[in-house]
Amino acid sequence: MDLYEYQARELFEEHGIVVPRAEVADSPRQAREIARRLGGRAVVKAQVKTGGRGKAGGVRLAADPAAAEITARQILGTDIKGHRVRKVMVAEPVDVEREFYVSYVLDRAAGGFLAIASAEGGTEIEETAALRPQAVARVPVDPARGVTAAKAAEITDAAGLPARTTDVLVRLWRVLTREDALLVEVNPLVTTTDGRILALDGKITLDDNARFRRTRRGAEPEEHQDPLEAAAAARGLAYVRLDGEVGVIGNGAGLVMSTLDAVAGSGARPADFLDIGGGASARVMADGLSVILSDPAVKSVLVNVFGGITACDTVAEGIVAALDGVRLTKPLIVRLDGNNAAQGRAILAARAHPLVEQAATMDGAARRAAELARTA
Question: CA 154, CA 173: separation in Å to the nearest integer?
Fold first, then answer.
C-alpha cells in the first residue's frame, strides 16, 4: 500500500527525521488558514499517489495566505495522471543549499534490500540514473545486519553525500523495518542555507502482507485509492498502475516483470503490472482488458503468456471470448508460448480481429507494442 506524502512525513517525524512544518487541507479556505499559521509564504502540494506532480502543476509556491487559497482552489479537484486531487499539503518553504536522493527498496532477486543514493537529487533523478548511472550509488543491505552507522557511512561515501547525512540513513532504515515497508524514499533530502538537513518529500510503500500488524494506519477510504487499482482489486486482479503507455498482461510475476523490462528496452513505458496467475479464463481476460483499456494513457496492450498448467489454447479461447464482451479500442499484441502454443495461435488467427496481432517472441511483441504506442 502506497502512502500519501503527508503520511510518509508523519512516519519520518515519528522516527526523528526532520521535515518542514506542514498541514493538510481539503478546502481552499483551510489552505489559507494553514499558510497564515506558517507565516504567510507556503508551498501548496497536491496529495496523490503518483510522481511528476511538479511538472503537472501540482506543486506551487504561494506568496501569502490569499495566494495559498487561490492556488489550493486551482489544484483541488484536478486530475494528475489519473489521480483526482482531494487534499493538498501546505508546507513552509525552505532555502535549499543542496539536494540529494536516498532510498531503501526490497531486492527480491538478491533476497535483501538495496540502498540507492545520489548526490544529485530532485525531480530529474530518473534522468540522472538513465544518462549517468555512475552518479547513482547502489549498495546492497543485508536485512539481518541492517543499516548501522558504519553501513550508513559506506552508503554516503559511495554516493558522495555529506557525512552528516548518515544519521538520516540510519533513521530511514528504522522507518523501513519498524513500519513493514517495501520502499522508503526521500527525494529530495536537502541541506538548507541555515545548516539543517530536511526531508522535503517522501514516498513509502507498506507491505500489504503485514497489514494485520498496522493498527494505527489502515487502508485509505475507497475514494482516495487509484480508481483503476480499486476496480482491479474488486475483480481479484493483481494489478498495479504505472506511468506508461503500453498495457501489460502476463501469467506469473516473473514473466510480467520480464515483460515490463522488454517494453522499457523497446523505448516505451509499461502502463501497469497485471498478473493473471495460472488462470486465463474468459472472465479473467475480460476483466483484465477492461481495466487496462479504461486507462486513458494506454495506447497499446501486450498479452504475454507462457502455457503451463493452463495451456495456450485455453488462454486463446479466453481472449476470444473476452473480445466478444469487451470493446477493443487499442491494438492488442499477443505472444503465446509453451503448452499447446500452436493451437492457441490458430484459435486467435481464426478469430481474425482487426486490432489483434500475434508475435513469436517476447522481445518482438514488446517492440511491436512500443511501435504501435508511439504511432497511436
Answer: 14
Q: Provide the CA 298 distance to its chain's centre, in angstroms.
A: 16
With respect to residue 27, please indicate whether it lies within any of the assigned structural domains.
Answer: yes
3-state secondary structure of 71: helix
Query: Could you tell me the end-to-end alpha-carbon distance of the chain, in angstroms, rounded to an integer?
Result: 32
To the query of whether residue 104 is one of the catalytic residues in this protein, the response is no
Does 325 share its domain with 286? Answer: yes
6 annotated active-site: no
Q: Looking at 4, 6, 101, 104, which residue is catalytic?
A: 101
Q: Is 40 exposed, middle or buried (0-12, 13-18, 19+ CB in 10 A)?
A: middle
Cα 214 to Cα 225: distance, rounded to the nearest angstrom = 18
Of 92, 185, 229, 317, the active-site residue reads 185
Tell which of 34, 67, 91 closes a domain.
91
In sequence order, what are the residues at sequence separation of 6 or more whose Cβ sits closer than 8 angstroms to the Cβ of residue 136?
101, 116, 117, 118, 125, 128, 129, 159
Cα distances (Å, whole numbers) of residue 302 to 9, 308, 364: 37, 19, 11
Give this prediction's pTM.
0.64
pLDDT in tens, 145-160: 999 999 999 999 999 9
Question: Is the distance from CB of 92 to CB of 20 less than 8 angstroms?
Answer: yes
**Amino acid making up residue 25:** A
Contact 248, 278 (CB under 8 A): no
Please state, in angstroms and rounded to a whole number, the distance separating the CA atoms of residues 9 and 5: 6
Write out the H or E segment, with its range, that includes residue 169: helix 166-178
Query: Exposed (0-12), middle (13-18) or buried (19+): which is 222, by Cβ within 10 Å?
Result: exposed
pLDDT tens per residue, range 112-170? 899 999 998 776 676 777 777 888 999 999 999 999 999 999 999 999 999 999 999 99
Q: Which structural domain, as residue segments, surrounds residue 281?
A: 226-375
CATH code for the domain in which residue 33 is found: 3.30.1490.20
